[in-house]
Design goal:
Blueprint: E1 2-9, H1 21-26, E2 30-36, H2 49-61, E3 66-70, H3 73-81, H4 85-89, H5 91-94, E4 99-102, H6 115-121, E5 126-131, H7 136-144, E6 149-153, E7 175-178, H8 186-196, E8 202-207, H9 221-232
Parallel strand pairs: 1-2, 1-8, 2-3, 3-4, 4-5, 5-6, 6-7, 7-8
C-alpha cells in the first residue's frame, strides 16, 4: 500500500481559513475536506458563508488542497434529479475544489436518468463516492460511464466508528478509507489497512470526528498536527 493523501474534514468557523496554511506548508500531502449542507451553514462542522468567502480568498493566494463534501439535499438533488444545485448556488466556490465528495450516510439514493449527465457536465473534477454498503452500485455505474470517480470506504457516516475490518481496495483503483480514524490510532490503523491493500495499491485516508474537540464544538488543529506527524513518515512509501 502507498498512502499519498490524508484528508482532514470539518474545518469550520472555530478556526480561520488561514490557520490551515502552516500545516499545509509543512505537510503538503494534506487535503482539507469542507462540509456543505443546505440547512446547516454556520453550525459545528459546516462553515458559514462568510467563512467560505475567506476560504476562497485564501485558496487563490495559496496552494491549499481542498475537497467539497456534499450532504443532504445537495446530494439528493444531484442523484435523484440530476440537478447540481450546490454548483448552481456556489459557482465561485466550485473553482477552488479539486474533488467533490457525495456523502450518502447510508440513505438509499436511487439515481435519476440525468445523474450521470450532470456529473459529466462538470469536467475537471474528481468525484468521491461514499461506499456505505447501501449506495455502492452508484459508483460502479458512473465509473462504467467514464466519469472520474473514486470510492471512499466509509460505513461510519461521520460517527467516528472503526469498522470491524477494512475492505480490500478495488484492483487498479484509487481508494479511500474513513471511519473512526484519529491521532490516537492512525499508526496502527494504517498498518491494518496496509494488510488489506497490499502491493502498490495507492490509497488515501479521511477523518472527521476524531480531529474535533471532545465536545464537538471545534476543529482541533492540534489533533490534526498529530495525525499528520504520524503519517508523514510513511506517505509515498510502500507499507
Amino acid at each position: 500500500m502507498i498512502l499519498d493523501r490524508v484528508t482532514l474534514t470539518g474545518a469550520d468557523d472555530s478556526v480561520r481559513p488561514e490557520d490551515l496554511l502552516p500545516l499545509s506548508r509543512e505537510f503538503p500531502f494534506v487535503e482539507w475536506g469542507i462540509l456543505f449542507s443546505r440547512s446547516r451553514n454556520g453550525v459545528p462542522r459546516y462553515p458559514s458563508a462568510s467563512w467560505l468567502a475567506e476560504l476562497r480568498k485564501t485558496r487563490w493566494r495559496t496552494s491549499l488542497k481542498l475537497s467539497a463534501h456534499l450532504c443532504g439535499q445537495w446530494v439528493r438533488d444531484l442523484v435523484l434529479n440530476g440537478n447540481f444545485s450546490w454548483w448552481g448556488a456556489n459557482p465561485e466556490l466550485m473553482l477552488i475544489f479539486d474533488r467533490i465528495q457525495l456523502n450518502f450516510h447510508a440513505h438509499h439514493h436511487p439515481a435519476g436518468d440525468s445523474f450521470i449527465d450532470a456529473l459529466k457536465a462538470n469536467r475537471g473534477k474528481e468525484y468521491i463516492f461514499q461506499m456505505d454498503e447501501v449506495n455502492d452500485s452508484l459508483w460502479r455505474s458512473v465509473r462504467d460511464e467514464g466519469v472520474p470517480a473514486v470510492p471512499l470506504f466509509d460505513t461510519s457516516g461521520g460517527a467516528g466508528m472503526l469498522p470491524d475490518r477494512w475492505p480490500h481496495p478495488y484492483p487498479d483503483v484509487y481508494c479511500g478509507y474513513a471511519g473512526g480514524l484519529g491521532p490516537e490510532n492512525i499508526e496502527g490503523q494504517l498498518r491494518a489497512i496496509a494488510s488489506m491493500a497490499r502491493g502498490d495499491a495507492k490509497v488515501w485516508v479521511d477523518m472527521e470526528t476524531r480531529v474535533r474537540s471532545e465536545d464537538d464544538a471545534a476543529f482541533d488543529l492540534g489533533k490534526c498536527r498529530r495525525v499528520l506527524e504520524a503519517a508523514a513518515s510513511v506517505v509515498g512509501k510502500r507499507l
